[in-house]
Amino acid sequence: MRGRTLENYRFDKAEVRPAERALLIDGVRAELGSRAFDVLYALIKNRGRVVTKDESLDLVWPGLVVQENNLQAQVSALRKLLGPKAIATIPARGYQFSLTETVLTEIPNGVVPSDVPSHANLSPQLSRQCNPEAVMVQDPPSALTQAERAAVFGDIANYAVSNTPALSIAVLPPANLTGDANDEYFSDGLADELLNVLAKIKGLRVIARTSSFSFKGQNVDIPAIGARLGVAHVVDGSVRKSGDRLRISVQLVKVADSSPIWSEVYDRTLDDIFAVQDDIAQCVLTELRTKFMRPWHGEIERRMVKREVAAATKGRSANSTAHNLYLQARFLLNRRAAADIAKSVKLLRQALAIDPHSAQTWATFSQALVAAVDYAVVPQVEGTAEALAAVQRALALQPDLVDGHIAMCTYQKLRAWDWQIAISSVQRALHLSPDEIDAQTEAAQLYFLLGRLQESLEYASRATMLDPVNAISYRILGSTLGALGRWAASEAAFRQAIEFAPDRPGLRASLAFVLERQGRQDEALDAVSCEPADFLRWRTLSCLHFRGGNLVDSDRNLHALIDRYGDLAAFNIAAAYGAHGDADHAFEWLERAYAVRDSGLSYVKCHGMLQPIQADPRWPVFLRKMGFEEYDSGIGP
User: Fold this and answer.
1) Which of 275, 510, 547, 588 is the most exposed place for a label (fewest CB within 10 A)?
2) Coil, helix or strand for 259?
């Protein structure tokens, strides 16, 4: 096979391996983000001359608008590893690599197939080719790339056609051919499980559940789905279930021409479901890898894939009955309705009674309990304590369970308000599975709550690309953009969220605030009038009417909120009083919210309606009480 070679370089104690995208210091792989490596490699390839700052930005962030301080940060990180004199700053011009290098001999693992484009991202896929056990530490994605800006403004299809990576995939929910709607949970669950396994495979871009499932029941052809989601491949199929007998048909399809790359029919029993799921994941991953990455590594690749899939399924129940209950519970939990959440909690209890050793089930049980407390379907004190015990049990059983660390972040963020544990939990999840959509959205929301808006923007932007029709991702993106004062982009993000989930509570209320901040009061009132959650509608109307000078309607909506939800929406009542500038009543209701552990308090630091009372001396005291003392302030819509 013809190919191009990537040279390795040595600079005293440092060695640079471009094929692995790795920097070694004294033979030990240094922790280096992908952008920092790109800067380093650009300087090495252009050694002997000054590389201007504009040229560096074009090389490392092609086609993107990036501030110069991003480049400075990467150079600073490199100097810490290579020494302060490794990269010279040429005033008013740029940077020059200063170390004397020795070109090493080329090695076979540095050979890149000629069919890989020269601009292809070589990390982390090729790094694992050379060292399957290596863990690459990556920078957070840059905020609002061109593709992400396109996502905000609904232009994903045009982007996807020309920018789709070969190793990208969407898992569609298989058709339920059983004829019984009660078995829908099973077909959805199979796709869910496959998607979750593939999402944990580093180097494979997997579209998240919400976006993949948005085509459920629609007669849309494969190329249209691929263009909408920005993927090169789709997994599709069907499930027929009769008693404990299963027939599962599945195929891996190339989006460009709708041609099947691989297909299989499994006639099995429910007891064989785990073997079927693992075999599908292994076959899909092997086909993609051997066709588009390493066709000369067939048998080696199959063994590597088997190990990766086994690692990705750790924590799963080994009991088919318990797993079936788990699938039903997940199906109901995804509906996010009070009655369904209550049923989900009950089913998860049954699953854990059968198999108490499933870390995945314990993690999901914790998430369900946190939701059940929020929806008031379980007592607050008991539900909160049980949620913590469940996630602790999950992580005790499987310390590297991604879902366990995400569940811990959710618990700390909404129930315990221990922000340091929340940060460490979500970062651990991202380290274990960088493209896990739930970890991306958790990080985006967490950093928004902390007022760390640039970090929130980076993760929210990434989430919209991994899950391009997920209203939650766009809601967080819209909130963060609003907090940064980027009102037009914030409005576009909220409108996208509403398009994807028109009945989701809170979206129209948030859009109303963004419109009001742009001086469009009448449009804001029209928007919030369609808000499906009456407590959010009354709260927002009270604020908007107060700002517009209509005190009668403002008070009427506030009193309606108190009369109907005084026991359930203490934080929202506090926010309404805060918008009025009534600090005494606002702090009275904030204390009530704290006494009942109202999860809305997670938003206290970043909520725009509370901005008028932040000069009150009680404000920093309350933030310290919430554990926010070491974070800067951030205000959002």
Assistant:
1) 275
2) strand
Q: Does residue 114 register a pLDDT over 50?
A: no
Residue 593 has a pLDDT of 95
Q: What is the pLDDT of residues 290-340, one digit of tens each?
A: 665 544 445 555 666 677 777 767 777 888 889 889 888 988 888 878 899
Query: What long-range pairs does 287-295 form, CB within 8 A, spacing at least 24?
Result: 287/252, 287/261, 287/262, 288/166, 288/167, 288/169, 288/204, 288/233, 288/252, 289/167, 291/261, 292/166, 292/167, 293/125, 293/126, 293/129, 293/167, 294/113, 294/129, 295/113
CB 481 within 8 A of CB 604: no
Task: Annotate 188-219 with b (16+ C-beta within 10 A) or e (fewer).
Answer: bbbbbbbbbbbbbbbbbbbbbbbbbbbbeeee
Kindly report the pTM of this predicted structure. 0.67
How is 418-435 classified by DSSP, letter by letter? -HHHHHHHHHHHHHH-TT
- Structure tokens, 331: 């199906």
Which helix H or strand E contains 96, and what residues bound it? Answer: strand 94-97
Of the CA atoms within 13 Å of residue 89, those in its CB half-sphere come to 9
Q: In what order do the strands lie in the sheet with 51-52?
A: 51-52, 94-97, 87-90
Of residues 26 and 352, more confidently modeled: 352
Burial 344-367 (b: 16+ CB within 10 A, else e): bbebbeebbebbeebbbbbbbbbb
374 and 347 in contact (C-beta within 8 Å)?
no
182-197 per-position pLDDT tens digit: 778 887 878 888 877 8
The number of beta carbons lying within 10 Å of the beta carbon of residue 504 is 16
Other residues' Cβ atoms within 10 Å of the Cβ of residue 102? 10
C-beta of residue 167 within 8 angstroms of C-beta of residue 56: no
pLDDT score of 7: 67
In angstroms, the first-to-last Cα distance of the chain is 57
User: How much is the pLDDT for 111?
Assistant: 32
Residue 402 pLDDT level (bands cut at 50, 70, 90)? very high
Residue 43: closest CA among 18, 63, 12, 69: 18
Q: If DSSP states are collapsed to H, E and C, what string results for 103-146? A: ECCCCHHHEEECCCCCCCCCCCHHHHHHCCCCCCCCCCCCCCCH
Tokens 């240094």 -> residue: 30
Bridge partner list, 24: 15, 29
Among 28-37, 82-91, 249-258, which is the least confidently predicted range?
Answer: 28-37
